[in-house]
Amino acid sequence: MTERKYTAPALEKGLDILDLLAQHGQAMTLSQISVALGRSVGELFRMIHVLEFKGFIEATPSGDGYQLTNRLFTLGMARAPVKNLLEAALPPMRDLAADVEQSCHLAIASRDEIVVVARIENPGYFGYSVRTGHRRPIVEASSGMVLYAFQPEAIQTRWHGEIFSGVDEAARTRFLADAAQVAKQGYWRAESDLTPGVVDISAPVIVDGAAVAALTMPYMARKGARPVDAAIEHLRATARLISSEILGVS
């Protein structure tokens, strides 16, 4: 851990507000933020308005509090590694969606969550997709399963403290057993626990022996659709192609 040499109280207040809104997942009033952070309303009032002026937070349309904007997400997407990932991934993802006639998305790890950084809609009439910017705990997401399963053991161990915080022992044991199986078979396939009738299939984008992203398809069976096993093979081939393309644009 980096040794702390200096303090910047105003900056820390602003970062605390952003962290709180991100973790809470929904709008909060100034009073709620005050209570959660243990600071007075007067102490936070100016900081809230500065963050709003700078575009990091916004008042909800109903006026019942403040919520994060996509500003932080946009800044993160501008980082060179993510830009290289997207440059490599988007053309093959478009081909995959067109070939299989299913939507697909790309997710990366962000602390104890996955975040979707790109998606391609099914070009046909029917489909199901996950919005860009969507977040979910690693231990609850198909993309998270793949991202964890294809990390070196040292990285997996380092993740444990964050991703298993608040997870009961039975769920932890089940996740680790599934991850071991995923590492052997090279992909993950599971019925969606969010959307009935959708099968989540996911494969790793691997660079230098570790998954830098997970390519995931919420597969919907319908008349004329490719069988799920064929979709899995297309998905895995596309993930391998993205992996090789990343090395070409790095």
From TrEMBL:
<dbReference type="GO" id="GO:0045892">
    <property type="term" value="P:negative regulation of DNA-templated transcription"/>
</dbReference>
<dbReference type="InterPro" id="IPR005471">
    <property type="entry name" value="Tscrpt_reg_IclR_N"/>
</dbReference>
<keyword id="KW-0804">Transcription</keyword>
<keyword id="KW-0805">Transcription regulation</keyword>
<dbReference type="InterPro" id="IPR014757">
    <property type="entry name" value="Tscrpt_reg_IclR_C"/>
</dbReference>
<dbReference type="Pfam" id="PF09339">
    <property type="entry name" value="HTH_IclR"/>
</dbReference>
<dbReference type="GO" id="GO:0003700">
    <property type="term" value="F:DNA-binding transcription factor activity"/>
</dbReference>
<keyword id="KW-0238">DNA-binding</keyword>
<dbReference type="InterPro" id="IPR050707">
    <property type="entry name" value="HTH_MetabolicPath_Reg"/>
</dbReference>
<feature type="domain" description="IclR-ED">
    <location>
        <begin position="71"/>
        <end position="248"/>
    </location>
</feature>
<dbReference type="InterPro" id="IPR036388">
    <property type="entry name" value="WH-like_DNA-bd_sf"/>
</dbReference>
<feature type="domain" description="HTH iclR-type">
    <location>
        <begin position="8"/>
        <end position="70"/>
    </location>
</feature>
<dbReference type="Pfam" id="PF01614">
    <property type="entry name" value="IclR_C"/>
</dbReference>
<protein>
    <submittedName>
        <fullName>IclR family transcriptional regulator</fullName>
    </submittedName>
</protein>
<dbReference type="InterPro" id="IPR036390">
    <property type="entry name" value="WH_DNA-bd_sf"/>
</dbReference>
<dbReference type="GO" id="GO:0003677">
    <property type="term" value="F:DNA binding"/>
</dbReference>
<dbReference type="InterPro" id="IPR029016">
    <property type="entry name" value="GAF-like_dom_sf"/>
</dbReference>
